[in-house]
Write a structure and sequence with these properties.
The chain is an alpha+beta fold and 517 residues long. The protein has two domains: 41-144 and 209-300, Aldehyde oxidase/xanthine dehydrogenase, a/b hammerhead (Aldehyde Oxidoreductase, domain 3), CATH 3.90.1170.50; 153-207 and 303-462, 2-Layer Sandwich (Aldehyde Oxidoreductase, domain 4), CATH 3.30.365. It contains 13 helices and 17 strands. The chain has a seven-stranded mixed sheet with strand order 3-7-1-14-11-12-13, with helices on both faces. A hairpin with a 5-residue loop joins strand 11 and strand 12. The longest helix is centred in the C-terminal third of the chain and has 18 residues, at 382-399. The radius of gyration is 27 Å and the shape is globular.
Length: 517
């Protein structure tokens, strides 16, 4: 049951809604509930060959030799692909947007950097024959030390995980080894605070998407010299262009058919199967099916990246947060994929939906010998949001405030200046907190129940504070250490926020009542 709270922002509402709140049938619903929806593996092709990958058992190892002679003699084997067979073996997903260095091979050549990295591909008449031949490929590995911790990876003496980024951090704008956000003077903010809550650590784990349908595709020659690819990708044209780049062919030589995804959630944007399947179809002149089994999906299908988050806050007795310092480490795994974009998204979200006059954040995209990570519903934001909201509960406890009232007190209001130097517009966190408290029968004070996102923003809260310029880590330097904060003051008895005191950054009296944009 959807409830429309029409009293909130009533002058902006348009209740002539044609879809929201209406029992509109999805276009694909009948196909799903009757079992008639056609997924990539439902397309019938004549006598397809089957591709299976030879994968590394090591987190990090040098490849001394690959001996496929026994596999080539196995029944049904038609082709064995190595890295040298791939026209453009190195790629990075966002290179289509000129963002990042090509760093990930379709098939590893000299070094493997995570368990499950493909080093060769066997193409055979049946899936069973392909799997049997995979076990006959002999790879001579020299195991190397592996790095699994993001902070260990950034130490000056750490061995490079990814040769494209020898400092083990993605390089933004071809210069900087992290994304930074500076607003106000963090040291002055901590000195001003009545309470300094020392750095709190939050650790997120990688999360596998676990789609019902695993990653896969079927590629086949067409009569007009093109190659068709039935795929479950979530990014049809992105995967087409990525495949064209790796195969070094014009994109109009490829015909991608998809759009129906048996579960994705971000985990099917990486183009993990299409290039090799199309390459095998080109070399054999036959249709080729390449589908992950469940073990491969769990082991080498890109997960949500793990994140490590540190937060240090300065807060006043009346509940105003006056300083927030954060460090965020996003574990990209061995290669970039979409983790560099997660760093952008994370930085754009900080310091949360709260007006804080002094903000200092550093966000790193770090390489380790883990499975490369990728998109997953809100990646770069979801994990840090969890950390921020747990932190808000801790701060409310420190100053003796109700956690909902504490959020309302510090929430953005229309006209406030964000740490990114953009005006806050269309704010609604206050109203969301009020309705959530009402629905949960959580009592909040009348003063907080009367507050509005439209009122008391702007003015002094819209000013851009003086921000000291300090050195930033570049590609050739170690991460800049977080500035040391002054010793915290002795705690004073917590008091409720005064009626005349400011909410958020500073006292104010201005009214910002223009129409929301």
């Amino acid at each position: 049951m959807i409830e429309f709270r029409k009293e909130i922002f009533a002058d902006e509402r348009d209740d002539n809604l044609k879809e929201v709140g209406q029992p509109t049938q999805r276009q694909d619903m009948l196909g799903h509930v009757t079992g008639r929806t056609k997924y990539f593996d439902d397309h019938l092709v004549a006598n397809p060959l089957h591709l299976k990958a030879v994968r590394s058992p090591h987190h990090h190892a040098r490849i001394r030799n690959i001996d496929a002679s026994a596999a080539e003699r196995m029944p049904g084997v038609r082709l064995i692909l190595r890295g040298g067979d791939v026209p453009v073996n190195l790629n990075t997903l966002l290179s289509l947007l000129q963002f990042g260095i090509d760093d990930e091979p379709s098939l590893a050549v000299d070094t493997v950097r995570y368990v499950g990295e493909p080093v060769a591909a066997v193409v055979a008449d049946t899936e069973a024959q392909a799997l049997a031949a995979v076990h006959k490929v002999r790879v001579d590995y020299e195991p190397l030390a592996a790095i699994f911790d993001v902070e260990e990876a950034l130490k000056p003496n750490a061995a490079p995980v990814n040769p494209a980024y020898p400092g083990n951090a993605f390089i933004y704008h071809e210069t900087y080894n992290h994304q930074k956000l500076r607003f106000g003077d963090i040291e002055q903010g901590f000195a001003q605070a009545d309470h300094v809550v020392d750095e709190q650590r939050y650790q997120m784990s990688p999360i596998e998407h676990a789609p019902t349908e695993t990653n896969g595709c079927i590629a086949a020659p067409e009569n007009d010299g093109r190659y068709i690819c039935y795929t479950c990708t979530q990014a049809l044209f992105f995967s087409l262009d990525t495949s064209a780049k790796i195969l070094d062919v014009p994109s109009n030589k490829l015909h991608f058919v998809g759009g129906t995804v048996g579960g994705g959630f971000g985990g099917k944007v990486d183009t993990l199967t299409e290039p090799l399947a199309i390459l095998a179809a080109m070399k054999t002149g036959r249709a080729v099916r390449y589908v992950f089994n469940r073990h491969e999906e769990m082991q080498v299908g890109s997960p949500r990246g793990a994140e490590r988050i540190y937060i240090k806050d300065g807060v006043m007795n009346d509940g105003r947060i006056v300083a927030r310092q954060m460090r965020v480490y996003i574990d990209a795994g061995a290669y970039t994929r979409l983790s560099s974009y997660a760093g952008h998204k994370c930085t754009a979200h900080l310091p949360g939906p709260y007006t804080i006059p002094n903000v200092h954040t550093d966000v790193y995209c770090v390489y380790t010998n883990r499975t490369p990570s990728t998109a997953m519903r809100g990646f770069g934001v979801t994990g840090v949001d969890f950390a921020l909201e747990v932190q808000m509960d801790k701060l409310a406890h420190v100053v003796g405030m109700d956690p909902i009232e504490f959020r309302i007190l510090n929430a953005y209001r229309d006209g406030d200046m964000k740490a990114h130097r953009r005006e806050a517009k269309n704010c609604a966190l206050i109203e969301c907190c009020q309705v959530a408290a009402e629905k949960a029968n959580w009592p909040i004070g009348d003063r907080f129940a009367r507050m509005s996102s439209r009122v008391d923003g702007g003015g002094a809260r819209a000013e851009i504070p003086h921000t000291p310029v300090r050195p930033m880590a570049t590609a050739n330097s170690a991460p800049v250490a977080a500035p040391a904060a002054p010793a915290p003051r002795q705690p004073e008895p917590a008091t409720a926020a005064t009626a005349t005191g400011g909410f958020g950054a500073a006292p104010f009296s201005s009214i910002f009542g223009t129409r929301r944009r």
